[in-house]
Amino acid sequence: MEKIQLNIIGLQSSQSQSGSFALVLGEQDGDRRLPIIIGMFEAQAIAIEMEKIIPNRPMTHDLFKSFAHEFKFRVREIIISDLKEGVFFAKIVCTGPDGDVEIDARPSDAIAIGIRFNTKIYTYEKILAEAGIVLSEEEEIAGLEGSQDPAPGPSVSSKQSKSLEDYPLDKLKKMLEDAIEREDYELAATLRDEIGKRN
Q1: Of 20, 144, 153, 163, which has fewest CB within 10 angstroms of its CB?
Q2: Region class of 72: left (phi > 0), else alpha (psi between -120 and 50), else beta
Q3: Homologous superfamily of 3-146 in CATH?
Q4: Which 3 state secondary structure label does DSSP give 163?
Q5: What are the structural domain ranges in the chain?
Q6: Tens digits of residue pLDDT in 100-158
Q7: Residue 82 class from Cβ within 10 Å (0-12 exposed, 13-18 middle, 19+ buried)?
């Protein structure tokens, strides 16, 4: 079956399921979108890697990467391989000393691992045909505006974000260290962005 490459378009709070997030994947050479509902912890694992935030302790997906590296495995590709009764299935395709191995996984875990290996994500036409959606230009813009801050967790109000401008750089760096220590990755991303604006 021919594979279709997908890119991560956004990650936002799900309006249909409380405490869940919508991971939106987009067809590389087309306009179809594949939204997948994932849990908060998996969303956080994806978001902190997308935001390039380094936690104090390795998260589960980071541990997988270290384990694979030590045993000379690399992740070659991620495939959203099936859709049954509204549930997506995925495979992690690994290459090791003895050849290729396919590992079954939830799409959220597969993608969280895949982005740590800079791996491409694929699916099949039958899945896109069944579950893909095409957004109008207005819906696309609205969706992207809603996913600008992908790190899940307690929200940082615009008032709070604006007040960061009043802090000196050394205080912001200390606040960033504290946020990472508490594993508040959304605040850490906001602080990192403010520090970045000053450099």
Answers
A1: 163
A2: left
A3: Bifunctional nuclease domain (3.10.690.10)
A4: helix
A5: 3-146, 158-198
A6: 999 999 999 999 999 999 999 999 999 999 998 886 544 554 454 444 333 444 333 33
A7: middle
